[in-house]
Amino acid sequence: MYIQTMKYRNIGPISGIDIQASFNSDGSPKPLLLVGENGSGKSTVISNVVDSFYLLAQKSFSNAMIKNEDGYSFFKVLSNIQIKSGENFLLSRIVFDNNIEYFFKSGICSLDKFKSESGFTGRIKNWQDNENRKEVIGGSDDVITKLFSEQIFCYFGPERYEKPNWLGKSYYEALDSHLSIEPKLKGKLVNDICPHDMGKGTLKWLLDVIVDSRVDIEFKNNSVHPAHFNNNVAVLYAMTVARTNVEKIMSEILNEDVYFGLNLRQKGIARFNVKRKKDDSIVAPSIDSLSTGQLALFNIFSTIIRYADNNDITKSFTLNSIKGIVVVDEIELHLHSIHQKEVLPRLMKLFPNVQFIISSHSPLFLLGVNEIYKENGFDIYQLPEGHKIGPELFSEFTRAYQYFLDTKKHHEQIREAIDHFNTKEPLVITEGASDWKHLLAAFNNLSKKDEYKDIFEGLSIEFFKYEPKNNSKPSDLIKLDMGNTALVTMCEDYSKINQTRKMIFIADCDDKATNDIFMEQGKLFKSWGNNVFSFTLPVPDTRKDTPEICIEHLYKDTEIKTEHEENGISRRLYMGNEFNNKGISKELEKFCDNRKLCGRGKISIIEGSSREKVTDLFDDEKNVNYALSKMKFSEYVLNSEPGFDNFDFSNFVEIFRIIKKIVSSSETI
User: Fold this and answer.
1) Closest Cα partner for 368 from 338, 326, 335?
2) What pLDDT sits at residue 159?
3) What is the rounded distance in angstroms from the CA atom of residue 117 to the CA atom of residue 111?
């Protein structure tokens, strides 16, 4: 049984959508993917699908829903609170391919209105316009029993701190005693529609699979022989195939051929290990030593096989014989990018006769599905509008993925450059390619003054020296672009492994998000662990009114505006408060292109290496840029060029005081 159509009206953010499931020429279902931002209605759509499973199962199985003193604890509760603002009713209708239908209605709606909106043409008894109602129509007890005994119907939902308002309050309260792998009893549902505690159930079942696929041995005539299997090779082989299918799931996840081994009893609960087929070496000493994402994938897809096996043991022999509907909400949760794009679609493809209904907002997953199923092999519906997305939108996903790859490659280049920086001394890494030059200039100046002897005596550090990537000037230094985001990534990466040298990352103080990550409240710096530390530029008293500063703001305004003549043109750094909010300075007779940085009270540094161009107010051609670049400014300061050779570095003292505390501390974790 598969879903054919789904209709929704006035539910949450959804005004009205009609989803038509697609099928291949051989009748196998195409994956149905629901995408959209958080709050767009993906989980709402899915909740009705899952609720239809429960109502359908309850017609034939007494344990499908939990019974309490008030009746049954429904999976999805009826509530007017879900009705879209300004409307009087909501409804959903799900049509299966064997004349079975589910509908859900809340609020005030006449039967004629319900039929016109939902497309329902049959008879409904005892309709009340103002009642809340849900019902499954069609399907005898024998038909439903046969469906749930031969096919799988399950839902894998995201873990949530707060359960959604449509989830029955006491639904999960009795699950531990509700369903278990027991001898099949007439009228009892064997497979829980919402699998819970999957790891425990999977491991118990996996042990049975491995036991069934093994043969006893005996020692005769100085050699080992199989024993006690009554020469029924066909049965033994079939059981081996079932085990191989589960191992295929794990092999796809780990991207190498593996098999399950058994640890000896004294290993305790770590009963299984994962080994490479090629040399029997250990990949994972136990199943639970895998990552969260790997375990999530294994639990989902091994549960599909386990459920089919519970219904009919022969279904675990051939994966394409498994039929049914599998619903997954937010499928990309806990999954690494490679798992989203490459592994997950391949695992889905192993089950061609399972109808997957999946919600996601991962472009990587969609790209992977497109590569595995090809452009006409699946459907995507964009919520809350319910528009079916065609393959023409995949260019957007491709661009997003390429950006991801470029960013990842860039971070790898930064890490490689830092790793190859040959020093055992504590390494200071700055956000910008000009920042380290200012710090080095300040260090050279301040370390010579007796008044700061307590800070600089014995302070031995190295600065990570690099040039900006767009710098065309020949240099022996590596060329990189490293902003605040890259700095945060480096802190996260390096703190995972113990570092033999202390690594101190320093960011500007002009981005609140970075400030929150880089600092610990009430402390001078943040310890990430494993000898990794970070802090943002301390704000001097002279900048307390404008605390969002970059490193140039540690100088006086008059120093920032120091001019330098280049090819007969006098250039300097400008500040935003020198211009009005239209980018005009009548006093200077200058115009600034980037008006966002200009205006009263703004201290943004306007420099000449980007679009922040400063030109003559009366020059119609705007050919001459009078703004000096930050990079040249830092070089002039470092090299003590005339006019830049008597700067006040006193605002830099606090930076080195913090560095001294970090270097002197014994904290490494």
Assistant:
1) 338
2) 60
3) 10
Pick the closest to residue 93 from 228, 161, 3 (CA basis).
Answer: 3
Residue 126 to residue 132: CA distance in whole angstroms: 12
Nearest residue to 535 via CA among 562, 561, 509: 509
CA-nearest of 349, 351, 293 to 152 is 351
In this structure, which long-range contacts are made by residues 318-322, counting pairs with CB atoms below 8 Å and at least 24 apart in sequence?
318/241, 319/245, 319/350, 319/351, 320/351, 320/352, 320/353, 321/353, 322/152, 322/351, 322/353, 322/354
Query: Is-above-0.85 flag for pTM?
Result: no
The candidate with the shortest Cα–Cα distance to 2, out of 374, 352, 332, is 352
- pLDDT over 60 at 72, yes or no: no
* Element (DSSP H or E) covering residue 635: helix 630-638
**Residue 238 to residues 129, 217, 244, 313, Cα–Cα distance (Å):** 56, 19, 10, 10
Q: Are 379 and 31 in contact (CB under 8 A)?
A: yes
* Element spanning 504, H or E: strand 503-507
Q: Are 237 and 318 in contact (CB under 8 A)?
A: no
Q: What is the pLDDT of residue 665?
A: 82
562-599: b (≥16 Cβ within 10 Å) or e: bebeeeeeebbbbbbbbbeeebbbeeeebbbbbeebbe
What is the amino acid identity at position 24? Answer: N
Q: What is the mean pLDDT of the chain?
A: 84
Are the C-beta atoms of residues 321 and 172 closer than 8 Å to each other?
no
For residues 514-534, average pLDDT:
89
Q: Is the pLDDT of residue 161 over 50?
A: no
Note the pLDDT tens digit of each residue in 568-619. Answer: 899 999 999 999 999 999 999 999 988 889 999 899 999 987 667 899 988 8
